[in-house]
Amino acid sequence: MKILIIEDDPKIRTYVGKGLKEAGHVVDLAEDGEMGLHRATNEKYDVLIVDRMLPLLDGLSIIKTLRGSGNLTGVLILSSLGDVDDKVTGLRAGGDDYLVKPFAFIELLARVEALGKRASSPLSAQSTTLKAGNLEMDLLAHKVRCNGKIIELQPREFRLLEYLVKFKGQLVTRTMLLEGVWDYHFDPQTSVIDVHISRLRKKLGDTGNTLIKTVRGAGYIIDDSF
Amino acid sequence: MTVSRRYIESSSFKMALLFTVLLAVSAAILGYFLIDLGKRDFLRETEAAIDIEISMVSGMENVGGELLTYIQRRAKDDQIVRFRYEDAAGKLLGGSIDPMPATIQKITEGVLGFDLDTLHGNQAFAAKIHTFDNGTRIMVARNVHELIASYTQLKHLSWLIMALMLIVVLVSFGISHFVVSRINRIAATAQHIVKTGDLSERLAIDSRWDDLSNLSLVLNGFLAKIEDLMNGAREISNNIAHDLRTPLSGLRSDIEALKNQRIDEEHIDMVLANIDHILGVFHALLRIANIEKGKRSQQMGEVNLSKIIHDIAELYEPVAEECDIRFDIKVAATLMIKGDGDLLFQLFANLVDNAIKFSPSHSVIVLNADIEKNQVVALVGDQGPGIAEDEKEKVFKHFYRGDASRTTPGNGLGLSLVRAVAEQHHARITLENAAPGLQVRVIFQPYR
I need a labelling partner for B15 at 20 to 30 A (CA). Which of A128, A161, B33, B351 fits? Predict the structure, then answer.
């Protein structure tokens, strides 16, 4: 993927840039708002990573300008403003995802890749069935088939699985699941997500954690290789 | 010196002074009235009546018999008038004044005053004497007892009024002095508090009947609240320092240990987990502060509490199941309240999370929500150890961790957040020991 990072903090800029390059992406850097907007309008990127507070032109203005001119590139907003309201304003301005500083790089990577995936499979091309290995999901009938066997899932478990399968082969972090599957913004005190995943595994007969794999300290991944 | 100057400059003193001036003017007017309208003016009417009487009798001088009959007739008709007709030698010729009164005082020029016996005892009379050409004299007297009595009454009344005015002046000065000295005392205490920064000081209250004691009481309450908040803030910063020092020093030693070691992933994960814990505490503190500031109050909308509680149960059901805990849910179909869905979800998530933490295995957690007495009441009940009476208030404080929770994971901010959210929703939280277990009740404002 081709990614543009618009971030004024040199430490974060180089660190994120380096990490994304190591993950196999092409990375461009911009250190202020005007330069970032210039690059984003003149070149085609898969994902933009935009800091909210930037010199010359703030992040939200960049996004609004891009969206105004019909540019629909996936945008991840980076910000130290972490309140729910701040997130809402960020997403309303046209951001696709919002990540609060300080963040774990693995979280950023997972979100950037999810954004890239969303961009590469436009809405019209989305099918009503999802597949991952031996797993088949019928999104219309809300049916799940694993190794040819129909599996009964609760609505929330279905959404959880749907989210994981949609981003198969990619890391999905716990916070991504919380934000994507539950309708509330909240901080779980204990690892409720882990318990839901292990119950889902049990129902899918995934005894060896081979279907839904745990990435230590980060999240889960559904392997698409088999 | 400054005290008396401050007293003189005070508004109370000025008011007392104004009162005094006004009362002094009134007293002066009253005094002038008394002096000017003296006895003389008072008896002018009487004198005029006597003069008429004299002019009547003076026309009859030569007819002695006629005068005497007139005198007798007049005296019979009018009890107020009395006469004495005497010859030049002072011998009584007619009339009822006999003998001449022993003490005669001169009221004004030509008017005499004396006492005479009447049916009602000794009463005052005013009289004038007319001497006829033949040397005989007639004294015409009128009873002025009533007049003098009312005059004296008026005089006494005036003195009484003046005395009362004096008392009012004294009292108003007394009150103003009392008020000013109390205000000065309050000001001095306040100044002392400002100077020393010692918020534990209180205003002295020596009585309970006046407004100033009431004011002192209110101010003391105010001071107590400020002291409480200050202590709270101090406690929080102390707790932050203490609560973060432990993980930070752990972090430090972990990093230090890495110096001499081959860096392995497990170590890095441990360090990261430490940092995440510290960041989590900061995040939770900021969140509570934002809720307490009411930053999110514009997010308030109509939410269905029943749905929130069902969603909570759904979220925590697998967690509870792992500990062999069952939810017993009794929730009315729809319970609309005015609130912030995300925050209410967080509130019940924290309560249910706590309930699971403290429940023994194979127990039941009760989740109820219904309308009680026109209010929406939600209840989270567990069968855990409960909370001791003296800890019920403390558990809501930042970083407070009861003995039972020292070993459980958490940052001591869960219930602080619960309280912040409840307060933002004007909801009340009560903790009841159900023996066994704890019942947390969240009582919402009736929704209209």
Answer: B33
